[in-house]
Amino acid sequence: EWHDVIEKLPDDVTIITVDMLGFGKSPRPEWARYSADEQARSVIATLLRAGITQRLIVVGHSLGALVSVEIAKRYPLLVRSLVLCSPPFYNPDRDGALPNVDRLMTMIYGQVEHNQETFLRLAELAIEHDLVNSAFHLDQDTLPTYIQTLKATIMSQSAYEDIQKLRIDITIIYGSLDPFVIDRNLKSIAKANPKVTLARVLVGHEIIGRFIPKIVQRVEKHINAVEV
């Protein structure tokens, strides 16, 4: 998923990419719930096994953005800053006279489990028409992991509250055409946490097309800030 971003970053930057638990070439253990804290512990265990102990700029996309927040919350000594792309931050408990978009989004995600064949077909169409990153892969074998992740991480998240308490530099890059991101929530987060900077781009959800150079630009900005 990150290949096109990585090849545009400076050659002297050390870059570590991981397949999160249950995705790509990472294992899918029977005990896994695929919650954000489980994913965070797995990522940190991987880094420590590789001998990585210095503070990192953690970059995450979508689900990875939620896991990045969890890593920063649980392991603050290892995280220098965050770059979060297309983060699905939801606040289902929000009150108000207007319809609760957050609760509606979680309900839509919940329908995936009950309409699996339709979801698979939609995924096929998205791949066929280049609407998703080329690394995206979904079939009958990987679908259970996606469903469990939706339930344990996205639909039952604490990231919306957690990110407001972090005291590190955070850049959130999101698309004005992204159907999974709630603009109001991001603005509320930035208002509550002065360490958060928002960057709105005319793109969708996936790391494709014009989204790639925007992410590169923001990551390089963080790298330069670290070097200073």
Task: Kindly describe this structure.
With about 230 residues, the protein is an alpha/beta fold. The chain is built from nine helices and four strands; from the N terminus they run ααβαβααααβαβα. Strands 1-2-3-4 form a four-stranded parallel β-sheet, sandwiched between helices. Helix 2 (about 35-50) packs across helix 3 and helix 4 runs antiparallel to helix 6. It starts with a helix and ends with a helix.
Shape verdict: globular
Q: Which strand order spans the largest sheet, edge to edge or round the barrel?
A: 1-2-3-4
Instruction: Give me the Rg, rounded.
Output: 17 Å
* Main beta-sheet annotation: 4 strands, parallel
Task: Provide the fold topology.
Elements: H1 3-6, H2 36-49, E1 56-61, H3 63-74, E2 79-85, H4 101-114, H5 116-128, H6 143-154, H7 159-162, E3 169-175, H8 183-192, E4 196-201, H9 211-227
Parallel strand pairs: 1-2, 2-3, 3-4
Helix pairs in contact: 2-3, 4-6
In short:
With 228 residues, this protein is α/β, with parallel strands linked by helices. It is 44% helix and 11% strand.
Task: Give the tags.
228 residues, alpha/beta, 4-stranded parallel beta sheet, 9 helices, globular
